[in-house]
Amino acid sequence: MKIYFILSLMLLTGHLAAQDLPYAKKVVDTLTSKTLWGRGYTNNGMIKAADFIVNEFKAYGLNPMNGKAYKQPFSFSVNTFPGKMEVAVNGKSLIPGKDFIVLPESLGQSSTGKLEQKDSITFIDSAQRVVVVLKDKLTWSVAQLQENYTGIELLKMAISGKPEQISINIQNSFVQNFETANICGIVKGTRNPDSVILITAHYDHLGGMGSDTYFPGANDNASGIAFLLGLAKYYAANPQPYSIAFICFAAEEAGLVGSKYFTENPLLPLKAIRFLVNVDMVGTGEKGITVVNATEHPKEFALLNKVNDEKKYLSKINSRGKAANSDHYFFAEKGVPAFFIYTQGGIDAYHDVNDIAKTLPLTEFEDLFRLLRDWLVKAMF
C-alpha cells in the first residue's frame, strides 16, 4: 500500500512539474501595486490584498478551512501615518522613504526648532520632543503603540554637514482596533483528511508613510504569497492522500500578530498538523536557502538535503536553529513541527521603498517548488 501511494503521487506530480512563473510574477505585480498601497494600514491596503487572495483561493477550488469563510477576522492596535509627511533639515526639504523615515511609534506634530547633538548620530529638539538619528540605510517597521515624541531617521547622505534646524509637519493616527483577517483554505486529503500539511506565508507589509510614499514589499512577502498560491493551485488540481492547508497571515510585520492569533484560535486541531512549512522572502536564491528549525527536526532536514543532492535543485541548503523571526514561531512553540524557509543572495532591499517587483529575480522559484513537492512525497510516507 505504501508503494502504491508513492507511485500515485509521482504520477500526479507529472501534471504540473513546476511553479507557473508568469503567474507568480503577475501575483507579485498585483501585490506590490500602488492600489494595494504596501498591504498595510492606510488606503485599505491590507483589506484589498486579503480580498485578492480570497478570490484566488475560490478560483482554485480550495475549501474554507472552517467550512464557512476563508477569512479569520481579528483586530489589534497600530500606529498609522495617513496624511502629512513633511520634513526639512537645515532648510532642505526631504523626500519620505528616500531621505528619511518616521519612527513607527511617533506622535504626529507640526513644529520648527533647533537640534542639539547628543552623540555622533543622535540630535534632539527637547522643547518639541523631536529626535533625529542619522543612518546609513533606512528600514521601516510597524508599531502597536504611540509614544509622546516624534522620531526621524535621516539618511546621512541626504544632507551636508550636521543637522542643526528641523521643521516637521507629520500626521499620525493611532488605531486601537484595526480590523484585518488571516486567509485560510484547505484541499482535503483523499484518504487521510485529518492529517494535514500546512503551508503558510504572511501577506501584509508596511503600508504607507504619508499620502505619497508606500513600501511595495516585493520580496517581503509578495514572493512568499506568490509561492504559496502556486502551491495551492497545484495541490487543488492534484489532491493528496493527506490534506494540504494554506494560511496567509495578516499583521506579521506588527509582531507575528496573525499567526499568534491563529494558534490561540485554531480553525483545525494543531495536533493534526504533521508538518508546517512557512515561506517568507523567497524571491532570490542565488546562494541557496536557509531552513530555520533545521536543528529541531534533523531527520526531515536530512531528507530535504537528500532530495536536493539527488535532483540538484538548489546550490545550498543552510541549517539554522530556533528563531522567532516569522510566522512558524508560535506553532513551533505549541509543538507543531515546522520549518521556516527563506532564500539567500541577490537583491538586498528590505523594509524600504526599493523592494519592488521590477528588481525581484525569482531566481529559484521553480526549483524551490520542485524541492518541496518531492520532499513532501518522501517525508510523509
UniProtKB/TrEMBL annotation:
The keyword Signal applies. This is M28 family peptidase. GO terms for biological process: proteolysis. InterPro entries: M28_fam, Peptidase_M28. GO terms for molecular function: metalloexopeptidase activity. Keywords: Signal. PANTHER family: METALLOPEPTIDASE M28 FAMILY MEMBER, PEPTIDASE M28 DOMAIN-CONTAINING PROTEIN. It comes from the Bacteria. The keyword Signal applies. Residues 182-373 form the Peptidase M28 domain. Residues 1-18 form the signal peptide. It comes from Pedobacter psychroterrae.
